[in-house]
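TASK: fixed-backbone design
INPUT:
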């Protein structure tokens, strides 16, 4: 029995090592997964952030949302995205915590990777996708070497 227990412990350690290696290798991918807060009846939308030399482009997936129910605010390097769903969404097949929860809104804070020009931010909402164009305040200038 002791040898069997040692084998199970080694298997658990092996699986834990694999999980740690996967999180180290792919942690950035898993950090932006959709999450939820059953107490606030709130979902965190899936987002994608692309940074170019001139701007930051953020795309958010907001199904079941109307344009007039979206709220965007920028303050001190953070973008606050909130959107109310047209009708509550219930995921009956999820685990016990979420089984009886109706989600009524999306909410996400997004840390901006650069200093931005808040006066020139533009957002477009189409077919359930919100695309936010945020120009950077400081542009990179190439210096010619003689």
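OUTPUT:
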């Amino acid at each position: 029995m002791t040898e069997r227990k040692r084998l199970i412990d080694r298997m658990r350690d092996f699986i834990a090592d694999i999980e740690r290696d996967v999180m180290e290798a792919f942690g950035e991918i898993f950090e932006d997964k959709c999450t939820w807060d059953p107490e606030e009846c709130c979902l965190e939308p899936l987002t994608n952030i692309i940074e170019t030399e001139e701007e930051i482009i953020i795309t958010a997936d907001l199904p079941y949302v109307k344009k007039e129910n979206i709220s965007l605010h920028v303050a001190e390097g953070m973008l606050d995205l909130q959107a109310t769903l047209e009708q509550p969404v219930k995921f009956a097949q999820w685990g016990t915590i979420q089984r009886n929860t109706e989600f009524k809104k999306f909410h996400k804070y997004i840390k901006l990777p650069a200093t931005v020009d808040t006066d020139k931010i533009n957002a477009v909402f189409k077919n359930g996708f919100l695309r936010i164009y945020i120009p950077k305040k400081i542009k990179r200038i190439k210096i010619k070497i003689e």
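COMMENT: The beta strands are 36-37, 42-43, 47-51, 55-61, 65-75, 78-90, 102-111, 122-126, 129-135.
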